[in-house]
Amino acid sequence: MRDAERVVITGMGAVSPNGVGRAAFWRACAGGESGTGPITLFDASDHDCRVAGEVKQFDVEGNLPVKTRRYGMRVVAMTLAATAEALDGAGLDSTRLSEEERRRTGVILGTGAAGIAFGEEQYQVYYREGSRRVSPYSIVATFVGMLSSEVSMEHELRGMSHVVSTGCTSASDAMGYALHTLRGGRVDRVVTGGAEACIVPGIMAGFSRMGTMTRRNGDPARASRPFNADRDGFVMAEGAWVLVFETLQSARRRGAAPLAEVLGYGTTCDAFHRVRPEPTGEEAARAIQMALEDAGVPADRVDYVNLHGTATELNDRIETLAVRVAFGAHAERLPTSALKSMTGHPQGACGAAGLVETVDAMREGWLPPTINYDAPDPACDLDYVANGGRAADIAHAVVNCIAFGSKNSALVVRRWDGR
């Protein structure tokens, strides 16, 4: 494959419940530090689930342009902060880009709910105070596509500006779209990844009524328990994880140092149920196999899988089965782990969170753990790197995601070795 068709990651940024900034996020992940705790963003006293992965010690207003502070959305502030870190890490100063460079830089982000928090707030205003008190920003603020627009406008990036919203696979699908867009030569680089900020009463109540959220309120740091026998549902989380994908030709032309290479992407649909994964795991496995085929990497060359691992009963069991189907005998010696045990579940952003964690795991030679794993489930029998990280040589890795609506997506990445 020519350098113009190879895609590398040149920058990453993170705003996470267990660490603001890429370095803090990685330290927390490597050390198995939880970022979940009691909900403080609203009064959750009458909710069944009162824990979440909130981003703490983060200045929302300070990370918003003056023109957007009137509707001060957390999701925009977190996205812009993660984007600024990713661009800086990539050695890109958007104020110094030429007009042609701006036109050759796109934005493709994933989110499930985008500005839903502001929208829910405005509905409360409407029912409490009437229509004339509703913010004129309520439409543009809750339009899912506004997320990429805010990034494009802030940095004057004139390539495509798109948002992919496919539930929990949103960021993975956005990054897969970015990969194939770059291979096609339409742009030289793409700001991609995902963000979510939906720790709000209505969303929390809906998921709780569905029976998918934990009720382990007395022990918030241990509430997210992927693959554990006593898991009782996921912990809602928020955050933003942004990466700069760039053709190797572009990166070399400007002297950028790649962090990793993105090799493949696969996506399928079970076409089975709105919220339950298909019992055989066949289509989830096929998404992984498609990603490996796209990457040209045999299954037995994979050294690590970053799992979706929500801590819901069916998801964890079916994902385990899908990994066994996709990797065959290699699954017996394949280390895997679940980031959500530490952060909670950031919905549409989780694929980007998993990729940022995985790239640093490859670079540091360290497998991040699945914490809160103290009672193995016989139906979940992979190597989950339980409770403590460990050293490992990770050359190739898979980031896996599964979403409501029967969606499955996987990405394959390779540690950058200069070749």
Structure report:
- By secondary structure, this protein is of the alpha/beta class.
- The chain folds into two domains: 7-253, 3-Layer(aba) Sandwich (Peroxisomal Thiolase, Chain A, domain 1); 264-415, Thiolase/Chalcone synthase (Peroxisomal Thiolase, Chain A, domain 1, 3-Layer(aba) Sandwich), CATH 3.40.47.
- 33% of the residues lie in helices and 19% in strands.
- It has 13 helices and 15 strands.
- The protein has helices at 22-30, 74-89, 99-103, 116-129, 138-142, 146-155, 170-183, 201-210, 248-253, 282-295, 313-327, 340-343, 350-364; strands spanning 7-16, 19-20, 37-38, 51-52, 105-110, 161-164, 189-196, 239-247, 260-269, 304-306, 336-337, 366-367, 390-391, 396-403, 407-415.
- The strands form three sheets. Strands 1, 2, 5, 6, 7, 8, 9, 10, 11, 14 and 15 form an eleven-stranded mixed beta sheet that branches. A two-stranded antiparallel sheet has the order 3-4.
- β10, α11 (313-327) and β11 form a beta-alpha-beta unit.
- The chain is globular, with a radius of gyration of 20 Å.
- The mean pLDDT is 95.
Write the layout of secondary structure elements.
Layout lengths: L6 E10 L2 E2 L1 H9 L6 E2 L12 E2 L21 H16 L9 H5 L1 E6 L5 H14 L8 H5 L3 H10 L5 E4 L5 H14 L5 E8 L4 H10 L28 E9 H6 L6 E10 L12 H14 L8 E3 L6 H15 L8 E2 L2 H4 L6 H15 L1 E2 L22 E2 L4 E8 L3 E9 L4
Parallel strand pairs: 5-6, 5-7, 10-11, 10-14
Antiparallel strand pairs: 1-2, 1-8, 1-9, 3-4, 7-8, 9-15, 12-13, 14-15
Helix pairs in contact: 1-13, 2-6, 10-11
